[in-house]
Design goal:
The complex is a heterodimer of chains A (about 170) and B (about 400).
Chain A lengths: L2 H12 L5 E6 L2 E5 L5 H10 L7 E9 L8 E9 L4 E9 L5 E3 L8 H12 L2 E3 L40
Parallel strand pairs in A: 2-5, 6-7
Antiparallel strand pairs in A: 1-2, 3-4, 4-5
Chain B lengths: L3 E2 L22 E5 L11 E7 L2 E8 L7 H5 L4 H9 L6 H16 L5 H29 L4 H21 L19 H25 L3 H7 L7 H6 L4 H6 L6 H4 L20 H24 L18 H6 L1 H11 L7 E9 L4 E9 L6 E5 L1 H6 L2 H5 L4 H11 L3 H5 L1
Antiparallel strand pairs in B: 1-2, 2-3, 3-4, 5-6, 6-7
Helix pairs in contact in B: 2-3, 3-4, 4-5, 4-11, 4-16, 5-6, 6-11, 11-16
Classes of the chains: A alpha/beta (about 170), B alpha+beta (about 400).
Chain lengths: ~170, ~400
């Protein structure tokens, strides 16, 4: 099973513009898709007689503050154990309304992964059975992994370029 | 149990005329944790009990969350190794080396064969410590303390080998980008040979005491079972998945660090219950010993680290006498070296399963985003499903056999 085969099959099924930004990172196929495509695409990959992406390895949130309208992203790491092929699917949503569909219906493992992404990035997974904070305390009123909360010690001076003659 | 709290459940009507007293239909709430001695870590489970039977469980995690992923976004790459120590602290070298391999993939560093074999030896030693802890504590949780003492002294002994390699015991920070920070010393080699010679006897003694023990078998067989299908759906990896009958092992499927050079079996169970998880871990210890034996017998000659001066700290004596070494030393320590732009996912077989590192680099000195795939975090969410309908004592051994480690879970 080749990576090209997967992209071809997905483009045939969901249209040529549903799969874009196709790259390969150390043998792992990566591509971006629209938020609306996620659930049908994962179902398709799960049930496909050959691909069988039936294992959700991980789900990671990410924040790009400069990408207007696409600030918050989710990266789905899938693994087809039978073919031993991995796949990363990315999707982005605007920070004002970061709505993603839940995939807990397909993968039970997604439950806490989505709660973690909500906790740290404020990504809203519509239809999630219990979308509450998981690692941070319930009283927290912000999403700490977003880039607007930098982790710089205000008293630290060793990184000032001027002091290094730059 | 002092933490028992009986509450009135409005959904259940009290029928005082019924046989068995007034509490017969009443559900009670039991707080198991957060600091319960039998949970080996800070976990809270709010159990809904119908008498002795667990009806439902609600988990609370995050008590020792230390924001590793956020901190990592501020740290140069080499400083993140110390964060990985503190995830699964029972097998810290696997975390360290998984992280090193991830960064080496990003930087494109080729690690010499000797360093790869050394890493395999250290990682298998770490797997031994991890499984020794899990299995001997499982025996303790079922009431057998002595077996734990037989094998635990060998865990101490492995920590002495760590000490010989890196000076630390628990949070090891072992290895560097490009290889190991030092070669095996004669003492380390000698200790590894001693371990290979003498651990099997202790392990056999432990197995003789526990494995076919009627009480242990009654306490663990058919307890906390999960089917292969559910386990995969829940994202199980490692010994817990293999106990359910799926032969997924990252070492065999996506070999890293020369694992393809070694011959070893991937043990699988059939039922996915506590006893199978115990047996799979026992057999993995034997396989680890087998791998270490092969690696130490065929340890290649050559350098123990790659020639990567931008990322690998130069020797101390060079720093004092050699201009380039001094520059690189300064730049590495100050974290002045930028990493290339790229995205890497690398996973290794940790003590508990697939330990993954998803690293996004935007070309700066720190990761743009670093996501740890902690196996314990993902499979612990199946715990309520596994203990529903069982008793409290079964829940304790189920949790123990899953080897849930709070540090790994909460990052």
């Amino acid at each position: 099973m080749e990576n090209q085969q997967i992209t071809d099959a997905l483009q045939a099924q969901f249209g040529a513009d549903a799969v874009y930004g196709v790259t390969e990172s150390h043998g792992i196929l990566q591509f971006t898709t629209g938020v609306d495509n996620i659930v049908p695409m994962l179902h398709y990959l799960y049930a496909h007689p050959e691909f069988k992406f039936q294992f959700l390895t991980d789900l990671a949130g990410i924040h790009f503050p400069d990408a207007k309208g696409q600030e918050l992203g989710v990266i789905y790491h899938l693994h087809s154990l039978e073919n031993n092929v991995r796949l990363m699917i990315k999707a982005y949503a605007p920070i004002e309304a970061p709505h993603f569909p839940t995939i807990t219906g397909l993968y039970a493992a997604a439950n806490w992964m989505e709660r973690e992404a909500f906790d740290f990035y404020g990504i809203l997974f519509d239809g999630h059975p219990n979308l509450t904070r998981i690692l941070n305390m319930d009283e927290m009123d912000y999403h700490p992994m977003r880039k607007e909360y930098p982790l710089e010690d205000a008293t630290r001076h060793d990184k000032i370029d001027e002091l290094f003659g730059r | 149990m002092s933490e028992v709290a009986l509450v009135n459940n409005p959904n259940v009507g009290l029928d005082k005329t019924q046989k068995g007293g007034p509490y017969v239909n009443e559900l009670s709430t039991l707080n198991l944790g957060p600091t319960h001695p039998a949970t080996h870590g800070i976990f809270q489970n709010i159990l809904t009990m119908d008498g002795e039977t667990i009806v439902d469980a609600e988990q609370t995690v995050g008590y020792i969350h230390r924001a590793f992923e956020k901190i990592a976004e501020r740290r140069p790459f080499y400083q993140i190794t110390t964060l990985t120590d503190r995830m699964n602290y029972c097998s810290a070298p696997i975390n360290n080396m998984g992280w090193h391999m991830t960064v080496e993939k990003l930087l494109g560093i080729e690690v010499p064969k000797r360093a790869q074999y050394m890493r395999v030896i250290m990682m298998e030693l770490a797997r031994l410590t991890d499984h020794i802890v899990c299995n001997s504590i499982l025996a303790v949780d079922t009431g057998a303390l002595t077996g734990f003492l037989y094998v635990y002294q060998w865990r101490e002994f492995i920590y002495e080998i760590y000490e010989e390699m890196c000076g630390a015991r628990l949070t090891t920070n072992m290895g560097r980008f490009g290889g190991m920070e030092r070669d095996f010393t004669p003492v380390a080699i000698e200790k590894i040979h001693k371990l290979l010679k003498e651990l099997p006897a202790a392990l056999k003694e432990f197995e003789g005491m526990v494995m076919r023990n009627r009480i242990f078998m009654d306490r663990t067989q058919n307890v906390g079972a999960i089917s292969a299908e559910r386990a995969l759906n829940y994202g199980f990896t490692g010994p817990n998945l293999r106990a359910a009958g799926v032969d997924y092992d990252v070492r065999a499927m996506n070999p890293y660090s020369s694992y393809e050079d070694f011959e070893f079996d991937v043990p699988v169970g059939t039922k996915g219950d506590t006893y199978d998880r115990f047996l799979v871990r026992e057999e993995e210890m034997w396989q680890s010993l087998r791998i270490i034996q092969q690696a130490i017998d065929n340890l290649p000659e050559g350098p123990f680290h790659a020639d990567a001066p931008h990322y690998y700290l130069p020797k101390k004596q060079d720093v004092y006498h050699n201009m380039e070494a001094l520059i690189y030393h300064f730049k590495i320590v100050m974290g002045e070296i930028d990493a290339p732009v790229g995205e890497v996912y690398h996973s290794v077989e940790g003590g508990n399963g697939e330990l993954g590192f998803y690293l996004v680099s935007d070309g700066g000195r720190t990761p743009y985003r670093l996501k740890f795939r902690r196996p314990g975090y993902i499979y612990y969410q199946a715990f309520p499903e596994m203990i529903k309908g069982t008793s409290l004592s079964d829940a304790i051994v189920t949790m123990s056999s899953m080897n849930v480690i709070a540090g790994e879970l909460d990052t």
